[in-house]
Amino acid sequence: MAEIMFWEAVRRAQDEELARDPMVLVMGEDVGVAGGTYKATLGLYDKYGPDRVIDTPISENGFTGLAIGASFLGARPVVEIMSVNFAWLAMDQIINTAAKVRYMSGGQLEAPVVIRSPGGTAHQLGAQHSARMEKVFMGIAGLRVVTPSNPRQAYGLLKSAIRCNDPVFINEHELMYNLKGEVPDDEYYHPLVGSEIARPGRDVTLFGYNISVHWCLKAAEILSRQYSIEAEVVDLFALKPVDRDGIRESVTRTHRAVIVEEAEPAVGVGAEVMAIINEECFFELDAAPVRVSAVDIPIPYNHTLEKAAIPEVDDVVAAVKKMFGV
Amino acid sequence: MNVADKKRLLREMLFARRFEERCYEAYVERKIGGFLHLYPGEEACAHGVLEAARPGHDYVITGYRDHIHAIKCGADPKKVMAELYGRETGSSRGRGGSMHIFDVANRFMGGYALVGGPFPLAAGIGKAIQMKGGDEISICFLGDAANNQGTFHESLNMAKLWNLPVLYVCENNLYGIGTRIDRSTAVVDQYKRVSGYNIPSAQEDGQDVEKVYKAARKAIDHVRSGKGPYFLELLTYRYRGHSMSDSNAYRAKAEERMWSKRDPLIILRDRLIEDGKFTKEEFKAIDSDILDEIEDEVIAFAEQSPDPVVADLRKYVLAEDDPYVNGGAH
Ligand SMILES: Cc1ncc(C[n+]2csc(CCOP(=O)(O)OP(=O)(O)O)c2C)c(N)n1
Ligand SMILES: [Mg+2]
To answer: To probe the interface with B, which of A60, A125, A264, A301 has the most B CB atoms within 10 Å?
Structure first.
């Protein structure tokens, strides 16, 4: 098993699928000649040519719609939207078409399109470049939403997403492309549903996804070392549909839950997981579940304010300490 | 434009150049964060157009490459720099950053980060001007690649349909980040693209501020006299990367050399010198004045200003003390 970076994992998945199936194509702004803003398509333009690795105009709703239309006839487009903030412009086609066409055609048509895009707050990118949109997509019936926390998932989820016959939105993170991790040398398909236990524990479950898995893991270490609290970290790499069984099983073991999300709390992943806990295993709880979320404001440019607006490891530790009264 | 105007314009453009270069340094020193898009090479566009307009009276809106447009509209360079430093004294109180300079008192309606976003906003500003019955116009500066957004076509259609007082200025620097215009755009001459909306348009050399000024005069006269929208394309070039993370690796060196010979500052300076109205020494003296001003006033102000306090984190999210939030003023 080789250690590679997140961007290399995304690149490898696309390379293999482009080589395997002539109907696979990759499109987006600066994905071709430039090799992608985060290098996720580096070298693919030279290898597969401009008709399959396509530099698009800045027309997000247009080229996403074009990809969806092509997928009606069996093309397998992988659309890179440079930043999720620009995916707002393509919401019409993603939500009104991709998510609904199978249903409203009574199963005659399908849109096997993959849309991958980095989100999250990076460093001082300001209000219009710091969106965290996973919770929006998570609320749409007819879409699959996954969000990798490491290179293995990034690779395997993308491989499965390309072959899956549903539209899949892959939520990546601007700050994670250089993250290193092991990826199997042989081809590997990660399931698009379920969750993973990133760290076993017995006292409390920390639910995270994408970047917040890393905050949870760090918090779990601190909690173990300094407070002898053994936290289980559950990685919700699939947000739609989200893993009800996995949530129930973990909470049934630990009887406590903290959900850590980078987005604002309202109508979010934390709210959804709490509702599921309520529905699935309320009587297993020893304490009320807690969310650690961003402050409910547009993201500020100023560094100090930005830091104050989004959660960090210390906030996770503090939430658990409060729950245990230590 | 008389000689005094030209000299003032030259000074303003040189100030713009030095201001942006100083931003570059401050970014490298990590005083400025986030995305930073600079304007060197394109100075004649904003200066020529706004010289022909009435800055502070006319409304101006643009994208993320916005510092110089704001300053030409009357924004205090100290406050613009303070914004880039994320300070409470910044033009957007440190909340916006480089891509979101606002100075509403001077009718600079802001820089926006989503490509194509300002097109319909400019049309809406034109609509409100029309409703209020003023003689202002709405001016929208955007790049060439932005014209591939649907908002471009949607806005042109509405602006013409409702005869809105809007001037669209296309700063065509031939690239949208790393993609050259002919690789993203079916019709490379941008001024031709508006003919389907029956909107008058022109293409002009964006490196020669006097030509820009003249073309803008004509355009603005048209718009201000109630004849509806106008589209002005300016051919220009950015001397630096798209933003700080861009190395320009995709551009041919010969192309860069060709455009560096068409530096808008040098074109105006040399013309003044040729006319016997100016000397290289004067130019140097102005330059060193400007460098001092930027260091001693602009940078010093930004350096010495305070950051916003965390207690104010939730300010400016929603209106404060709006009586209708509670069902009206009784
Ligand atoms: C909706 C949207 N899509 C993509 C981007 C990323 N992006 C920022 S600037 C830019 C290129 C714009 O080029 P142009 O309009 O020619 O303006 P220039 O930067 O050359 O002045 C792109 C693709 C964005 N900010 N917003
Ligand atoms: Mg451009």
So the answer is: A301
